[in-house]
Design a protein that fits this description.
about 60 residues, mainly alpha, 2 helices, about 60% helix, about 0% strand
Length: about 60
């Protein structure tokens, strides 16, 4: 299928990719200490991932 139609993505599971990014960040930062910290991390990651999808520079 990929050889006949190279424009078709190899996968279509965007939610899985988003979850994978969040788990990767959590593993690297060794988790948060409070629930507020977890919410803040989730919010920040959501903003970063949305900026990537919209092709917006996020510093």
């Amino acid at each position: 299928m990929t050889l006949k139609h190279p424009e078709v993505p190899l996968h279509n599971n965007e939610s899985e990719l988003g979850a994978r990014a969040q788990v990767r960040r959590r593993d690297v930062s060794l988790h948060t200490m409070t629930e507020d910290g977890t919410k803040a991390n989730d919010t920040f990651l959501t903003i970063v991932e949305a900026a990537k999808k919209l092709d917006v520079l996020c510093v």
